[in-house]
Amino acid sequence: MSNRFEDKVVIITGAGSGLGQASALQVAKEGAKLSLVDLNNEGLEKTKKLILESVPNADLLLITADVSKEEDVKNYVKQTVDKFGKIDGFFNNAGIEGKQNLTEDYGSDEFSKVVSINLNGVFYGMKYVLEIMKNQGFGSIVNTASVGGIRGVGNQSGYAASKHGVVGLTRNSGIEYGQFGVSIKAIAPGAIMTPMVEGSLKQMNPDNWEEVGKQFVEPNPMKRFGKPEEVGYLVAFLLSDQANFINATVIPIDGGQSYKY
Fold it and tell me: Which InterPro entries did the record assign (predicted)?
């Protein structure tokens, strides 16, 4: 196993499930000291258990936080620096899908909630982590956007708007902070079988969501859902020093669906 993250400190938000959990496990196997952040404390404990099964001496900090609250974000950054002294990598990942509906029927409160978590939460994380990384003169940030951030997604106005915003923040901040030795990029996952995607399928058809899933991936050139660990491999690479010159860009991981006409 690679030791790309030996003596490196990585923060992961949304670490209690899905892409955050898979990425945490991967970078822990490669030697990272981890600050794991999630609103769901039970999910954090599950991630901790999975990591310790593979890396018994892993150095972990678990923080329960709501990324839509600026003070919570400021606190998880402070706790990380207080414990570890620096931040080498930041997987700015926490997010929700929200309810599905036509734009005219999309609730204003629901729109605000999705944007508050998916976009404001990413902004707050970048704001406070970038301050640390700029002063250090190094660091890598990976934001979770979505294929919904580079093209439309029907019935998901809040989600698509928020993820387009993440793409804009990534490109803009990458341009700003490259001069300080900080690289910033985003991933754009497609249909990855996570609890969030499962929940989305159940919104479409609660009684036969597995069949909806089969139809959902049919247009994909690879005819399947992606696996969380496949995203974890990509995130680990992008957070590593090997990807330092990848900056201000968005990398799809969707089996090629975004480019199929």
Answer: NAD(P)-bd_dom_sf, SDR_fam
- The dihedral of CA 213, 202, 99, 173: what is its sign? negative
Are residues 52 and 178 located together in one domain of the fold?
yes
For the chain, the domain total comes to 2
**pTM for the structure as a whole:** 0.94
**Do 198 and 158 belong to one domain?**
no
Beta bridge partners of 19: none
In a shared domain, residues 124 and 203: no
The model's pLDDT over 123-155, given as tens digits with 9 standing for 90+, comes to: 999 999 999 999 999 999 999 999 999 998 889
Residue type, 108: S
CA dihedral sign, ordered 14, 16, 19, 23 = positive
- Cα within 13 Å of Cα(84), Cβ side: 25
In a domain? residue 261:
no
The rounded distance, in Å, linking the Cα atoms of 143 and 91 is 6
Same domain membership, residue 239 and residue 176? yes
Catalytic residues: 159
Phi, psi of 223 (to 5 degrees): 60, 35
SS (H, E, C) 105-167: HCCHHHHHHHHHHHHHHHHHHHHHHHHHHHHHCCEEEEEECCHHHCCCCCCEHHHHHHHHHHH
- At 87 the pLDDT is 99
259 is a domain residue: no
Whats the size of the chain, residue-wise?
A: 261
Check whether residue 216 and residue 240 sit in a common domain: no
In this prediction, residue 210 has a pLDDT band, given cuts at 50, 70 and 90, of confident
Domain that holds residue 220: 193-225
